[in-house]
Design a protein that fits this description.
Largest sheet: none
Order of helices and strands: HHHHHHHHHHHHHHHHH
Number of helices: 17
Distance between the termini: 32 Å
Number of strands: 0
Radius of gyration: 21 Å
Shape: globular
Strand content: under 5%
Length: 372
């Protein structure tokens, strides 16, 4: 029997490239949003039309596996008004509408109006303060490293400031907390969001006493009550610990889906998904297993995940499986693996598959329809 022919026509190749880019975007979106995943996918897709057009046309576009750091920053900016990434310290500040990002990329004039000077000044003032506070946290226990620089760049990009205002924030030196000026009125919700983001940034790799001193000094400077400071600290620590469980489940699910693509794309996708999902303090235990090729065993270790976390884990796992734009035969194999993961988590994989499949179809079908 002859082997199936591999499609080489340019239209199918272009659509397959786009499938790969869409699955990467899905992994980012689901790692960013612990709830409202379907709406997050839809909103992100509308803002990524320019990138998808570049991929279809074979032009250079940032991709997760090729230029991870730059891709993360670009994605953080794109998703900012939809669902600021849960892993990004100060995401709560962005959620308080401290961003000028809005509308769909490439269609901005139809979906949004130019921000007022008042809005620009507000975002510049509050956003700059958030960046400086987070940089002070990162620099408290040593020089800012590559991952911390990527996180700062993601936050700066999420603000959507004009280039002239954003550029100095990328390169300025850390501010000592006593020299960190708070200009103008600080909205109560934004101030608490900054303290929450500072705690989260500190807890991401375990809270150092020097980082704690900075958070408490800033909270005192903006008159946040001590009981709120303690509550926000507890919540930040809990968020980091809870994200560890979801992150470990994601890494295991991604590796299980592509167990026959290791080493290779199976390792790359699991590592990238793990980097997005796992707090830094817990990342080594999971990513080390990937590097050593330790087999994945489904042993019901993650049955205490919330419904939203299970949907994100299962959605990322299915997106990982679709990355190579699999044939019908391989898709059946991947679905069987996906169902086993779902059973292990005490979930039904159909909901996650439907969510990813429908979103990809919504993007692909109009493109395919217009092809000759």
């Amino acid at each position: 029997m002859n082997a199936p022919m591999v499609a080489t026509d340019p239209y199918t190749q272009a659509l397959s490239r786009l499938v790969g880019a869409l699955t990467e975007d899905a992994i980012f979106a689901l790692a960013a949003a612990p709830r409202g995943q379907a709406a997050t996918l839809e909103g992100l897709g509308k803002r990524r039309t320019d990138a998808y057009t570049a991929v279809l046309q074979g032009q250079r576009a940032l991709r997760m596996n090729d230029e991870f750091d730059h891709w993360v920053v670009e994605m953080a900016r794109a998703i900012a008004p939809v669902a600021p990434p849960e892993w990004m310290p100060m995401c709560e500040v962005i959620g308080e509408k401290v961003t000028l990002e809005a509308g769909a990329r490439g269609l901005r004039s139809f979906f949004s109006s130019k921000p007022s000077d008042k809005d620009v000044q507000r975002v510049k003032r509050l956003g700059s303060l958030s960046v400086r506070l987070l940089r002070a946290i990162f620099a408290a226990d040593g020089p800012v490293d590559a991952e911390e620089a990527r996180t700062l760049a993601s936050l700066i990009g999420s603000l959507g400031l004009p280039e002239a205002d954003a550029q100095p924030l990328y390169t300025e030196a850390p501010h000592a907390i006593e020299h960190l000026e708070v200009y103008g009125d600080l909205e109560e919700g934004v101030g608490r969001a900054m303290v929450a983001g500072a705690w989260y940034g500190a807890a991401w790799d375990s809270i150092d006493p020097r980082e704690e001193a900075i958070v408490r000094s800033f909270a005192k400077k903006i008159s946040v009550p001590i009981e709120d400071v303690e509550r926000l600290r507890t919540e930040a620590t809990h968020r980091v610990d809870q994200r560890r469980i979801a992150g470990l489940a994601t890494v295991d699910a991604a590796r299980y889906m592509l167990t026959d693509r290791t080493p290779g794309i199976g390792v790359q996708l699991a590592a990238k998904a793990g980097t997005l999902m796992l707090p830094r303090r817990y990342r080594e235990e999971a990513l080390g297993q990937i590097g050593h090729g330790t087999p994945v065993s489904l042993a019901k270790r993650y049955t205490n995940l919330t419904e939203g976390e299970r949907l994100s884990v299962m959605g990322i796992a299915w997106a990982v499986g679709l990355f190579e734009d699999p044939s019908m035969g391989r898709r059946a194999l991947l679905r069987a693996r996906h169902d086993r993961i779902a059973q292990d988590l005490g979930d039904d994989g159909a909901r996650a598959r439907t969510m990813i499949d429908e979103w990809i179809s919504v993007v692909l079908l109009p493109v395919a329809f217009n092809m000759k």
